[in-house]
Amino acid sequence: MPGLIITFPILVLISILCALPRLKIYHRRQAAARDLGCLPPTYAQQRDPIFGLDVVLRLLEALRNGRRNVSFGAIFQKYGHTFQINSWGGNKIFTIEPKNLQAVLATDFASWGVEPLRLFAFEPFVGKGIMCCDGTFWEHSRALIKPTFTKTQIADLHLSAFEAHVQRLIQSIPGDGTTVDLQPLFARMALDSSTEFIFGEAVGALDPDSISNTAREFLGAYNHGQMVVGRRFQLPHWNILTQDRRFLDSCKAAQAFVEKYITNARMDPQNATPEKSKVERFILVHELLKRTKDVKDVRNQLLNIFLPAHEATGVALTNVFFQLARNPSVYAKLRKEIHASGGDQVPWTFERLKSLRYLQHVISETFRINPSIGTTIRIALRDTTLPTGGGSGESKGPMYVNKGDLVTFSLYALHRRKDLFGPDADKFRPERWETLRPPQWSYMPFGGGPRVCPGQNLALTEVAYSLVKILQAFGAIENRDPVVEFVEVYKLTTDSKNGAKVAFVR
Q1: Hey, which of 131, 157, 225, 322 would disulfide with 282, CB 3.0 to 4.6 Å?
Q2: What is the C-alpha separation between 247 and 229, in angstroms, rounded?
Q3: pTM for the model
């Protein structure tokens, strides 16, 4: 007992000493918020105000029911365009205010990052690269990759190679009214295209009989690794549970596969030829080796790029045809525009595809209503502010953000704001783009600011070209999916759970 009497005051003293630095930081932040004119944010109702487990459980339930993005839209309707919750003892901010997106992604870019959120999940699989790093290493990655994604390279080199994959795709689609799910076909085409673009050799996914055992093993390893990365990203506090032997073996197999192509590229005479006129086609691994000889760096950058690249076009095309099947008049109108443009009498280029206005409207409307990336998250790397979201009602002011706070943007909810996109913002209507000029930072399917997707022109070109060739081949489309609404399945992208079940007639 005497020992306990002596120990208790000491424990109290230690607790006070530990709390003092936190109290000082709290008062400093309160004073800074007052000086900057910041107002307290709107808080969402929570049963668990410390860990936010009730909010987490609601989101997990929405995820299971294929309504994750829809649930975000409903929460924004209830609490406004910016609100905050307590999560794991910290703050988590949700916003669909264009001014806040502009601040986080561009004007206050240095105050926000992704590395503390992503690196632990991504690094065992794809290493350090453009997807998961901040600061000087991200700048290095961006400088290495960005020059390879120019309009000229896409139009002059990639599109000619992409043609063969589209033709194989069309040959796999029945034109006699038979029901077909386009989703797996688009995924295989995108996989073939991306592996040829990145590594110089397509894996042959559209022709399963020709795919090599090595490529098949790589795809199995990569698919498992990507699934585990998704789990690690969603459950950072328990990521040790996903560090199993199969995951580690998948990481090694995927990395070894890419290293093989790097070795081949270093021995390829084409890689040593700097003159563009002597390069017959564009291969990303060759381009990166012209800028660095660090094999590990090239391997990691390629894996970082392959992570989004092998899905982007397939997911986008699935979403486009999901909508076209439910809007056959749009299909007919688009086919008429393609026919009137002169067909294949003139070569299809990046600029020619951009000139087909209704084609671009259909693509823009699909990315608006079904963005491939429904939400994106950033973490505050230092104390900072958001331009709006503080206060209540109409008197909105800036809000203070602590270092370590998270901000989540729902592009799904942003793109469906009726004050920005019209009273029918929940409806698929490409014609809105004939007069619509969205305010800056309100329509951003590929992100914005320095971290804007470097391959967006490549993805848009592939989607547009695929649409042109498929609509040239098939005269009409019918929906064969008994479920009319879009049901989500969330991976690193937001996919259609029911695919795109349609029927074509020539």
Answers
A1: 157
A2: 9
A3: 0.89
